[in-house]
Amino acid sequence: MHYLQERSLSERTINERRNRIHALWHWLVKRGQVATWPTTGKIDEPHRTPQAWSAAQIRKLFVATALIRGTKNGCPKWLWWQCLLLLLWDTGARITEILSARWEHFDWDTRYLNIPAELRKGKRKDMLYRLSPETVGVLRMLKRHSPETILPAMYECITPQ
């Protein structure tokens, strides 16, 4: 751990590597390959307070997406970005979950988006999100551009022209 500290790695990275070594060490002790248990403790990590964007910053972001011009694979870029941001806002889900969501996961009548466990980190639990009427309105506009996934496979949309 001192070796890693000398190389200016973060406390979190050092603790993660320590945990891997400890897991292997425990496994070896349980199988009789090593006689002693590990005794090293974790180093203190700073606990940061998450910084959220202000309401004004969020408004600016949505205004900026409305100004995006052009299309990709027939889908207006502004619409794609608006939908992405609204889905992230409504759900708090990871971006990979949202980009993987399919229309079959969404119920138009109840406004619920059910992200199956297979698409989520850990792959253990489905997650159900109620979407706002505003998000559903944008989804209705987007539907004709993407027959399967809610957001068309448009990673190219993220990169500048």
Summarize the topology.
Blueprint: H1 2-6, H2 11-30, H3 55-66, E1 71-72, E2 75-76, H4 77-91, H5 95-100, E3 106-107, E4 112-115, E5 127-130, H6 133-143, H7 155-158
Antiparallel strand pairs: 1-2, 3-4, 4-5
In short:
It is built from seven helices and five strands, in the order H-H-H-E-E-H-H-E-E-E-H-H. The chain has 161 residues and is mainly α.
Please tally the helical runs, counting DSSP H or I stretches of 4 or more residues: 7
**Beta-strand residue fraction:** 5-15%
Low-confidence stretches: 156-161
Q: What about the largest sheet?
A: 3 strands, antiparallel
* Class by alpha and beta content: mainly alpha
Mean pLDDT: 90
The radius of gyration over CA amounts to 22 Å
Task: Name the helicity range.
Answer: 40-55%
Order of helices and strands: HHHEEHHEEEHH
The geometry reads as elongated
Annotation, overall tally of beta strands: 5
Query: Main sheet: which strands, in order across?
Result: 3-4-5
Question: For the terminal residues, how far apart are their CA atoms?
Answer: 45 Å
What do you see in this structure?
There is one protein chain. With 161 residues, this protein is mostly helical. Helices cover 45% and strands 9% of the residues. It is built from seven helices and five strands; from the N terminus they run αααββααβββαα. It has helices spanning 2-6, 11-30, 55-66, 77-91, 95-100, 133-143, 155-158, and strands at 71-72, 75-76, 106-107, 112-115, 127-130. It has a three-stranded antiparallel β-sheet, with no helix packed on it. Strands 1-2 form a two-stranded antiparallel ribbon. Strand 1 and strand 2 (75-76) form a beta hairpin. The longest helix is centred in the N-terminal third of the chain and has 20 residues, at 11-30. The chain is elongated, with a radius of gyration of 22 Å. It starts with a helix and ends with a helix.
